[in-house]
């Protein structure tokens, strides 16, 4: 499912446990209803640790159509970049489903990181991983067909949230996605997504129930992943450099 980096597409990575501890100790508890956002960037910038539920990192295009760049699961941060840089940008960190968070003002979090260089380094790596995940999603949307994009999205969700089911050939994720939501992830129209999704369901690879989606292992294991297919870019580069020149 990954083509370039090591992060799963569309999924925020978790942050360092020591940073989670800071939010749990000093953050203000808040319940976010589905669709509610924190303040992104600017003087009122906030950062939030997701405790339970699910957040989403998104932006509206010029037609005000919303696009989802990545999901923010428990243990990950909302507003981890612009909440710290003070920049106001065209993104939203919102509750994808009803969620509970620990909220901290940007100045407090920034001072904490400045006083703890080791954790500043850990947070920097987390931000890089976050953007690698978003880039993997953008790469998928620009290089894969719609059926493949849906397959990669579900494979990524299964790798992050999947649990075993009574059927050994299936895994379950505690989430059902509408055609509108899926279209915002995979950059396609609702009608196209609905048509392709119906075909996948008719093949028995996706079974949607109340509050969960069951995915056949055959379906999600069919994705190409450069890390699982013997790809070694450094070896190829070295071989090209060491190739003897023609005499």
UniProtKB/TrEMBL annotation:
<dbReference type="InterPro" id="IPR018490">
    <property type="entry name" value="cNMP-bd_dom_sf"/>
</dbReference>
<protein>
    <submittedName>
        <fullName>Cyclic nucleotide-binding domain protein</fullName>
    </submittedName>
</protein>
<dbReference type="InterPro" id="IPR014710">
    <property type="entry name" value="RmlC-like_jellyroll"/>
</dbReference>
């Amino acid at each position: 499912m990954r083509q370039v980096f090591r992060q799963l597409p569309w999924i925020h990575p978790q942050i360092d446990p020591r940073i989670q501890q800071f939010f749990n100790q000093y953050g203000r508890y808040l319940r976010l209803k589905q669709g509610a956002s924190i303040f992104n960037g600017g003087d009122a910038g906030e950062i939030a640790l997701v405790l339970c539920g699910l957040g989403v990192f998104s932006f509206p295009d010029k037609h005000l159509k919303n696009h989802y760049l990545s999901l923010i699961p428990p243990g990950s941060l909302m507003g981890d970049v612009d909440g710290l840089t003070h920049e106001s940008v065209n993104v939203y960190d919102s509750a994808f489903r009803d969620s509970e968070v620990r909220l901290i003002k940007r100045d407090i979090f920034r001072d904490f990181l400045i006083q703890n260089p080791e954790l500043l380094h850990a947070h920097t790596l987390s931000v890089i991983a976050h953007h690698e995940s978003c880039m993997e999603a953008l790469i998928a949307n620009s290089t894969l067909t719609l059926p493949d994009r849906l397959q990669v999205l579900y494979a990524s969700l299964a790798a992050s949230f999947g649990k075993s089911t009574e059927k050994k050939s299936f895994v379950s994720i505690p989430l059902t996605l509408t055609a509108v939501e899926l279209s915002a992830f995979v950059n396609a129209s609702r009608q196209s997504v609905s048509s392709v999704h119906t075909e996948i369901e008719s093949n028995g690879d996706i079974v949607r129930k109340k509050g969960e989606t069951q995915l056949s292992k055959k379906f999600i294991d069919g994705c190409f992943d450069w890390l699982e297919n013997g790809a070694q870019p450094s070896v190829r580069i070295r071989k090209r450099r060491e190739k003897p020149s023609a005499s």
